[in-house]
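Table S7 (text form). Paired inputs.
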Amino acid sequence: MAMTSSRSYLIRALYDWILENNCTPYVLVDAEREGVEVPLQYVKDGQIVLNVSPSAVVGLKINNDDLSFNARFSGVATDVYVPIHAALGIYARENGQGMLFENDMPPVQQQPAAATEAPSQPARPERKSQTPQLTIVK
């Protein structure tokens, strides 16, 4: 018997747990997934980290299909919408404790390059991030 995704349930539970421990919940989002509505100027390497603490957002809703709220980015009120499959993890800003989720969606399909286009640039080496490092828990 196929079951629904547990991602939204885990996000809600971890959100409550993080708040009860007086920490700040951050949600990591794949900003390149279809349907994601976030301020693009804050997207880095296809991802964005959102502070979803009660003091940072208004009207936070986490249901089985999506996560949505209103927040200010550089003083501009912005509606944010994240399909639940685009939420890659939730963690506490203060200590990095939380959970990353497996990417259960196929990658966005890229159009094949035309034969007349120049070859693509080599991949950049990965930079070490200053953000907390999380591991996938199964």
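Next pair, protein 2 of 2.
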Amino acid sequence: MKPDFESDFLWGASTSAHQVEGGNNNDWTQWEKLNAAALAAEGKSSPAREPNNYLSGQAADHYHRYEADLDLAQSIGLRAYRFSIEWSRIEPEPGRYDQAELAHYGRVIAAARKRNIEPLVCLWHWTLPVWLSDRGGWSKRANVKHYIEFVRTVSTALGPKVKFWLTLNEPEVYAFNVYMLGNWLSKRHNPWLYFHSLGNMIRGHRAAYRLIKAKFPEAQVGLADDNIYFDAFDRKWVNRIAAAIGTLFWNHLFMDRIRKQTDFIGLNYYHHVRVDYWRIRNEERYRSDMGWELYPRGLYFLILNLQRRYHKPIYITEHGLADASDKHRAWYITESLKQVKRAMDHGADVRGYLHWSLIDNFEWDSGFWPRFGLIAVDYQTQTRTVRPSARILSQIIQSGRIE
């Protein structure tokens, strides 16, 4: 019987440096210290009411435990690992690059390859060195040159060992929360800076793409982009128009500008929005611990939309849920993969699925309480435990079939 997924399909999981490494000193760690008490006061349940929940601290100590974590990834059968480079480690001061930290990430890549795990390296996942944040971060066009030099330094050091590069992670989510809403970091509610920062990230991506491809023509360069599945309640024409506007604004505004400077599309999917005039009418049959609707069918429509618009290979670079009790994760993975297969049967060129996340992680302004990992982490002892849902995913990987 023919498998649902061929043997070269890239199965993996993802993390980001700030969320799992621990011991970071960047603009997020500073923001955490200033806002932990206020975030705890807004918490709706314990441990969300504890200020320490919002301090990343040692996180999952992945910086020191990456080999053991990759052993667990290998035991599940994962063949790919997406992780990010912490910019503040590489360039703690303007123009001073830490060779020891570059060597550390070289060892992470080597450790993955030793286990036959393909490393996908993300160059920027939301954190900035303090000195760059103080200079305005992505809101200042003059700072794009610092990103380009960072990319040049990292790609020169690690490039011979890396096939897949992701220049940026979810630029719209970052810019929307930092500048449009003013919820994160800058606390600056400024729609102009939202669009200006996106423009600067587009410039940064284009330059990074050209730089890496010039050095390593065989490298595959893209980015991880958050897509929301917008659909229309009752298919009313006004709702269809609203859903189309949402899709264009959120899913395509950035990607349309870089379509010639990307070898693949990294799709991150978490949210579904069913529009009914000014209201949202989702089915809400299942929710994650964070209250996000679990809607597997959205993957099918998003994949086909991306394929027909851009004609690029697609890797699902993030897809998961906060589920501390692990009651929905196996169902969600299985049903979502059915939708991926359905899209592939309709001609979509999907080449990989990377779950978010490999291990439990620090979830930004929500802190430690959301549990996204295929592998559970006891933050008191740093003990790892493979969740039962990860074993279900492992069976799918081994058989190539969705039961």
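The chain is about 45% helix and 15% strand.
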